[in-house]
Amino acid sequence: MKMMRRALLPLRAFLGGTVLSLTAWLQARVRHKLGLPTRGTPDERTAVQDDIKRRTALRGGLIAAATTAVGVAAGSALALARRPVTSPRDSASTGPVIAAAADIAAGSAKPFTAPNGAPAYLLRPTPDTFLAFNATCTHQGCPISYVGPGFRCPCHGSTFDENGQVTGGPARASLIEIPVKVIDGQITIA
Q: In whole angstroms, what is the distance from residue 90 CA to residue 92 CA?
């Protein structure tokens, strides 16, 4: 460990010295504006050292504040640019889009994630009907799978039909239905 510290001393002196030090640069600028020599004897430097420190601290603070303001403004602009654009009508009347109606064939299902983060399935039992259900078994909360026209729980064997009703197994309650509607060919959560 001591050997590593010794090996890093030249780098530390270079980075912490006057070569790359913002404080040293600011102090040199203050000395130059006050007409003082940039280097001198200790007696010459102590005469105005407090004034130099105060001015350096103020300028350093201004630089830090300006850098922070630019960073916050740039980050906010970037965040706003990444936000999806929605009209007020869309956000007030519909929820998140699940899928396009044309992408789901009659008699099939598509998995999706509900707004609360739970797994769910979107079904199209007939060409004009769309249903969505939470993909969690009502018996003990195991994830269910779509199999043919219904659902099956791999944990304890509960089965549900395409309307979410229990058809077998230890589950007694139907699947939780998620209300959906079709708007402009898009299936959204109602």
A: 6
Are 139 and 53 within one domain? Answer: no
pLDDT tens, residue order, the chain (190 aa): 666 666 666 655 555 554 556 777 777 777 777 776 655 566 655 666 777 777 778 888 888 889 999 988 888 888 777 766 554 444 445 678 888 888 888 888 899 988 888 899 999 888 888 999 999 998 888 999 988 788 999 999 999 998 889 999 899 999 999 999 998 889 998 8
> What type of residue sits at position 167?
T
57 and 78 housed in the same domain? yes
Distance from the Cα of residue 57 to its chain's centroid? 36
pTM higher than the cut 0.90: no
Residues 133 and 176 reside in one and the same domain: yes
- Containing structural domain, residue 103: 89-189
Characterize 180-189 residue by residue with b for buried, 16 or more Cβ atoms within 10 angstroms of its Cβ, and e for exposed: beeeeebbbb
* 78's tokens: 């970037």
Burial of 45 (0-12, 13-18, 19+ CB in 10 A): middle
119: closest CA among 92, 153, 163?
153
